[in-house]
Specification:
The complex is a heterodimer of chains A (112) and B (111).
Chain A (H helix, E strand, L loop, with lengths): L4 E3 L2 E4 L5 E6 L6 E8 L3 E9 L2 E5 L6 E5 L5 E5 L8 E8 L7 E2 L3 E5 L1
Parallel strand pairs in A: 2-11
Antiparallel strand pairs in A: 1-3, 3-8, 4-5, 4-9, 5-6, 7-8, 9-10, 9-11
Chain B lengths: L3 E4 L2 E5 L4 E7 L5 E7 L5 E6 L3 E5 L2 E6 L4 E6 L8 E8 L9 E2 L3 E6 L1
Parallel strand pairs in B: 2-11
Antiparallel strand pairs in B: 1-3, 3-8, 4-5, 4-9, 6-7, 7-8, 9-10, 9-11
The chains are: A mainly beta (112), B mainly beta (111).
């Protein structure tokens, strides 16, 4: 069974640009969560989706948005990028919100 | 929201040694998971353990929900055990809440 797939693996963007990150969950998993990981703040929750509905949203500005499609694939978008958005963005999937989380390899975003 | 504290923050072990990592949390939990992040950044789910004890090879975990803590035991450590160990919890106390991660324990196993 294929694991969680995140694309792209690496991204370099400049301030002010926008970026879209993609996540394909494990087959059969309907819950997808996104986390931002930085050395200073650790793992911070961004969004959680279940069956195309946003179930939870973390304390991030409105520049961060996400969605989930009918096939459970998810995307997150960050607009008007800032230097502080440089981080490892991790996607995780689970069968449902109360099941074990399985993470992808992440997308490392660098904003210059 | 729920607070998660992990200890110790850093741990250095000689290969073959045993260790215990601790996770304290501030509220009743619905869900508690342990993860290992290897030096390449990959997060691996080790245990889903809101209560009780589980074992998987050299690793085992115990959660005492009534006392609000969980322990991860690593026996006969190997260099491949190096990395950061995270505990993550959520609570139903205030409706649906996301999984909150502790700051982790960084483990270095030296040969």
């Amino acid at each position: 069974k294929a694991g969680v797939t995140q694309t792209p693996r690496y991204l370099i963007k400049t301030r002010g640009q926008q970026v879209t990150l993609s996540c394909s969950p494990i087959s059969g998993h309907r819950s997808v969560s996104w986390y931002q990981q930085t050395p200073g703040q650790g793992l911070q929750f961004l969004f959680e989706y279940f069956s195309e509905t946003q179930r939870n949203k973390g304390n991030f500005p409105g520049r961060f948005s996400g969605r989930q499609f009918s096939n459970s694939r998810s995307e997150m978008n960050v607009s008007t990028l800032e230097l502080g958005d440089s981080a490892l963005y991790l996607c995780a999937s689970s069968l449902d919100p109360n099941s074990p989380l399985h993470f992808g390899n992440g997308t490392r975003l660098t904003v210059t | 929201g729920i607070q998660v504290e992990q200890s110790p923050p850093d741990l250095i072990l000689q290969e073959g040694a045993n260790s215990t990592l601790r996770c304290n949390f501030s509220d009743s939990v619905n869900n508690l998971q342990w993860f290992h992040q290897n030096p390449w950044g990959q997060l691996i789910n080790l245990f889903y353990i809101p209560s009780g004890t589980k074992q998987n090879g050299r690793l085992s975990a115990t959660t005492v929900a009534t006392e609000r803590y969980s322990l991860l035991y690593i026996s006969s450590s190997q260099t491949t055990d190096s990395g950061v160990y995270f505990c993550a919890v959520d609570t139903l106390r205030k409706g649906n809440t996301p999984l909150v991660f502790g700051k982790g324990t960084r483990l270095s196993v030296i040969a």
